[in-house]
Design brief:
By secondary structure, the protein is mainly beta. It has a single domain, classed as TolB, C-terminal domain (Neuraminidase), CATH 2.120.10. The chain has helices at about 5-15, 315-320; strands spanning about 30-35, 40, 45-50, 55-60, 75-80, 90-95, 135-145, 150-160, 160-165, 170-175, 195-200, 220-225, 230-235, 240-245, 255-265, 295-300, 330-335, 345-350, 360-365, 370-380, 390-395, 400-405, 410-415, 420-425, 435-440, 445-450, 455-460.
């Protein structure tokens, strides 16, 4: 599926991939937790929502898919695409964060009895034990009129720890491996790469890693549609913020340059605001505050695949060379500004901040400079925002935050004024994380995953009322 830039931006803006005027400047630490839309307990014990909202369970791990494989476990990052032939349907591309050590949730069955049904060459890797890796991606087709999933099947197989990723303007899903394992650790190939899967896929694709995008603890990706540059986060306490400049726009496999962000005047910066030192000198708890704009530059990352080294080696080398550290960079989304020509990259740091409960950062690219960086929100404590993971720009203008915290898990909204409010609570007994929040092309349905026991939900309601 190939979309023109104009067509993609029009459809994706309605779906929440872009937002025309989101501005969270100055909101860090200046929060207010609202209680205007209290959650109503769910008698089925799955999802508490505000009055007037409903949900549907559209997929559960372990059930049989349309292609005869089992739905993999640990659903994670996800994006929604318009259906190329039917405006009444949409496409979900969904990651599965099955780690090398994960022993359940395989699409091939408990004893891999369905593995021989996978076409030759479509499995990226097997473990040293002979079992397949069963991280990967599934594609779901959802009927917006009938309010049901009508088809789902496996499109990427044999990868490890597919956590988040991001949609591209040309109609594909970038699936990121967080497990950067090597043959010495029980794999037959190297892992920790980005894989591109077209939303138009009708079955398993050739699992070809984009090695030039680096081998590290990949988390999320976001594409600037103005330039085709891909920005990436790293789920590592000492992780970096990366960008990939492709040699040929929209053809990431043809090579490119991997770079890491440096804060000008603050070489080897530590942005966590933690009271304790995580590698920098003099980085106290008030080093990075709201309303402060930091000019940045970028350094080239040589030997991006670092095949013979651990998956965190790029971060170590980059920080030593001056790149800024971000405490567990995770969720990411692109927001178009009101001028229709420029945009911002928002990303979360799950354990950043004085309280270790999360930060939201904004990077603004520029046609005339290397861009600027700003901390737009820092959680004052777990009861307000507890370890935000995936994020999404909502059609009504706020950020949707998926918690992966240590107690009850919430979907929360963050307004441009720095107000936090509750959208949903995971009422399931397993209290697992929310992930993969995204919106249908018409902005009416929010899809989200609860990782354990592996549920995908479709939520509808008076979204604009959340602004009041």
């Amino acid at each position: 599926m190939t979309l023109s830039r104009r067509s993609f931006m029009k459809k994706a803006q309605a779906a929440g991939i872009f937002y025309a005027s989101l501005s969270l400047s100055g909101s860090a630490l200046a929060f207010e937790k609202t209680g205007k839309h209290p959650l109503v307990p769910d008698p089925d014990g799955i999802l508490d929502l505000p009055e007037g909202f409903t949900y549907r369970l559209i997929s559960k791990a372990g059930d049989m898919m349309s292609d005869g494989f089992f739905r993999p476990g640990r659903a994670d990052g996800m994006a929604c695409f318009p259906h190329p032939d039917d405006d009444g349907k949409c496409i979900l591309m969904r990651n599965h964060e099955n780690w090398p050590s994960t022993e359940s949730g395989s699409p091939f069955g408990d004893n891999d009895e369905l593995l021989d049904r996978l076409p030759e060459g479509k499995l990226y890797d097997t473990k040293a034990t002979g079992r397949p890796f069963f991280g990967g991606v599934t594609k779901l087709v959802y009927d917006l009129e009938k309010k049901e999933m009508v088809e789902d099947f496996l499109v990427l197989a044999g990868t490890a720890g597919n956590c988040a990723g991001g949609p591209t303007p040309w109609g594909s899903w970038l699936s990121c491996e967080e497990a950067a394992v090597v043959p010495a650790e029980g794999a037959n190939k190297h892992h920790g790469f980005v894989f591109e899967v077209p939303a138009s896929a009708t079955g398993p694709v050739d699992p070809k890693p984009i090695t030039a995008m680096g081998r590290f603890v990949h988390e999320a990706a976001a594409v600037d549609p103005q330039t085709g540059i891909v920005y990436m986060t790293e789920d590592n306490p000492r992780g970096l913020f990366y960008r990939y400049i492709p040699d040929v726009p929209e053809q990431l496999h043809k090579g490119g340059k991997l770079q890491a962000l440096v804060i000008k005047g603050r070489p080897s910066a530590v942005t966590s605001n933690w009271p304790r030192d995580w590698g920098g000198e003099g980085q106290g708890p008030t080093t990075y505050m709201a309303n402060e704009i930091f000019a940045v530059t970028w350094i080239d990352m040589e030997d991006a695949t670092n095949y013979e080294l651990p998956g965190n080696e790029l971060a170590k080398r980059g920080h030593a060379a001056g790149a800024a550290q971000f405490f567990r960079g995770e969720g990411m989304d692109y927001a178009l500004r009101s001028d229709g020509k420029t945009g911002d990259i928002y990303f979360s740091c799950t354990q950043g901040g004085i309280m270790g409960t999360g930060q939201i950062w904004r990077y603004t690219p520029s046609a005339t400079s290397d861009g600027v960086l700003e901390l737009v929100y820092e959680s004052p404590g777990a009861d307000t925002m507890d370890m935000c993971d995936n994020i999404a720009v909502a059609p009504w203008g706020d950020l949707v935050l998926c918690e992966d915290g240590r107690g009850d898990q919430y979907l929360r909204g963050l307004t441009s004024e720095g107000q936090i409010y509750e959208i949903a609570r995971n009422a399931h007994s397993e209290k697992s994380e929310f992930c993969g929040a995204c919106f249908s092309p018409d902005g009416q349905v929010m899809f989200v995953n609860i990782q354990e026991p592996g549920l995908t939900l479709a939520i509808e309601g008076p979204w604009k009322a959340l602004k009041s």
